[in-house]
Specification:
Blueprint lengths: L1 H54 L29 E10 L10 H8 L12 E8 L12 E2 L4 E3 L3 E12 L18 E8 L7 E3 L3 E2 L10 E12 L25
Antiparallel strand pairs: 1-2, 2-9, 3-8, 4-7, 5-6, 5-9
């Protein structure tokens, strides 16, 4: 009888201990959940601040002639270098102040890519059609080619982008063609880029054409507008692109 009472007492204590442990676990879980809510709240506050600060940045262009005004011969955009292009021509001038219904489908397509399909926007710009070789041609056909570009001095952090439409051939990549794909409407292409400890550097903003070994006759074609390199982090996912003010040589005309 005494043994049964002892066993019953032990079972009761074990049940009490189990209940106590369960209560402690529930209490810990509740505190962890509360802490997670607080942490999530702090993370949301930090993310909101970062997004707010990102939208409030000032962006200035370090490349020239974003509107792609032609040179005196009207054969190529002024201040841009040709790279491995076969030909270049203006296919349309997109003009501000025109009623949207009076614009061509192509003009509206390019404007829609940057949330600007409206009567007024920053200023007129050209859409160019570029025909390019798939590689460096001849005895160097085993090397990738590249498109038109500019020399620029590298800021601490930058965004490179343009509105681009692929027509045919090898799809260029990187720089202002980053994210380009075949068979899509005109889209905002590009990416952000930051430099390390070295500040006294320069670069060339040329997309690559990786058609190594293809015949010279297999050229590609894209249409492009508003290419530029600008300072800071532009949120390209929100189509936040336009004609940015130019910062550069005092003796040069920005041409837009």
């Amino acid at each position: 009888m005494a043994l049964e009472q002892d066993i019953a007492t032990l079972v009761g204590k074990a049940e009490d201990l189990t209940t106590m442990v369960d209560n402690k676990i529930q209490n810990i879980d509740a505190k962890v959940a509360q802490s997670k809510v607080k942490v999530d709240g702090y993370i949301d506050q930090v993310n909101n601040y970062i997004n707010s600060a990102r939208d409030k940045q000032s962006h200035f262009r370090v490349t020239k002639n974003q509107a792609l005004i032609p040179n005196d011969e009207e054969t190529f955009p002024k201040f841009w270098q040709a790279g491995f292009l076969k030909s270049a021509k203006v296919v349309e001038t997109v003009i501000t102040g025109t009623e949207t219904e009076q614009r061509s489908a192509l003009a509206r397509e390019f404007l829609q890519a940057i949330n600007s399909d409206r009567k007024y926007f920053a200023g007129n710009f050209k859409i160019w059609e570029l025909e390019y070789y798939p590689n460096r041609r001849g005895e160097h056909s085993n090397q990738y080619a590249y498109l038109m570009y500019q020399y620029f001095r590298v800021p601490t952090y930058m965004t490179i982008a343009a509105v681009v439409k692929h027509i045919k051939g090898v799809v260029p990549d990187n720089w202002w063609c980053h994210g380009l794909a075949a068979g899509e409407p005109a889209k905002l292409c590009g990416h952000t880029y930051g430099v390390g400890a070295t500040r006294n550097v320069y670069s060339h903003c040329h997309p690559y054409v990786r058609g190594e070994g293809k015949p010279e006759t297999e050229t590609g074609i894209i249409q492009v507008a508003l290419p530029a390199v600008v300072t800071g982090d532009v949120d390209l996912s929100k189509k936040q692109w336009g004609q940015f003010p130019y910062l550069g040589d005092a003796d040069q005309n920005a041409y837009d």
